[in-house]
Protein 1
Amino acid sequence: MLRKWYDWECKLFYSINRYFDRKWLNAYFRSITHIGGATCSITTVLLAIWLLRDEWQDAAIASAVALALSHIPVAMMKKMYPRKRPYISLHNTKVTKNPLTDHSFPSGHTTAIFSVIIPFLLYAPALTIWLLPIACSVAISRIYLGLHYPSDVLAGCMLGTLVGIASFSVLT
């Protein structure tokens, strides 16, 4: 059963990664992926805390706490489940120059973006129309760029969402 799952996951990976040579997709995914990176996500939540007021600021604080807390299990899981990145394990994977060298599972970028947006979505559900497509684009970019398997991204999405919900529930 695990073999069938892995085969399906590889097919899904290749179905997304195969478009790597499309110029406009490359520009989009290479740009948007950085929103889930440490520099952008940390800067965003700190600016939100500084600039927003009242309940919006509470949501920003919950977002920052979720971002910080979500990366503890990410670091632990990367050590416990040292999964090689797809560009190392799968033939004909298209990947950027100087790809990441740490372990693949789970996706830290995906965890970060979901942990950041979820408190804001819970506070103001109308933001879903704007923030969810951005978060999904970051998640897809990780596969598109050859850096993660779909299950890495799914785990990051679930982890970021759960920590975001918990953080919002406790802090607001």
Protein 2
Amino acid sequence: MPKKRLLLVRHGKTEWNGLSRFQGKSDVPLNDEGKCQAELLAARLEAWQPDALFSSPLSRARETAETLASRNPGISPVLLEELSEIGFGSWEGRSIHEIESADPESFRRWKDSPFDYPPPGGESFASVESRVRSALGEILSKSGERIVVVSHGGILRAMLALLLDLPLRPVWKMKIANCSVTGIDVGRKGTSLAFLNDDLHARMSGAEPEKLLFPV
């Protein structure tokens, strides 16, 4: 396989992110801050010249991907249902504080090992793993060396675990901020982490994000 770099992008911020609510499959759009984050990343991404762009169809990810494509006219988002966020069952729409107060034992188990202890009615890791593997197969079969994937915190962590052959618990503790970028290199010699949770563009004020290059 020719060497590819995947840029794994978490969607921009939503109102529910600001309220610490579980989103999961709920289709929550970007808020104004999230839209601004996506614009800043789009400007930065323009210099990188991606060959392909894949996205979850949920609006917060799709809107982020569409903004990225607007500054990179050679690509358009390919929507993959498999990239949708993990389903959080009865916890969706409820805040972390609310869940922790109402059901502290279930919340403690989930926080310690969320892939082993999904919320009531939530999606199992076997289901997540199956669809993430399917999405990766399609993404990596795409021609081109520079590929952007826009998805969600839970799915991107699952993707890191599968690509890098890492245990699930420590991967869940990795911070992946809204509109951050994580770089993965995939090639004949295997897969490696190039960088994690780069959100410098989202922290810039009055600067020119297009001049901020990604780590090599």
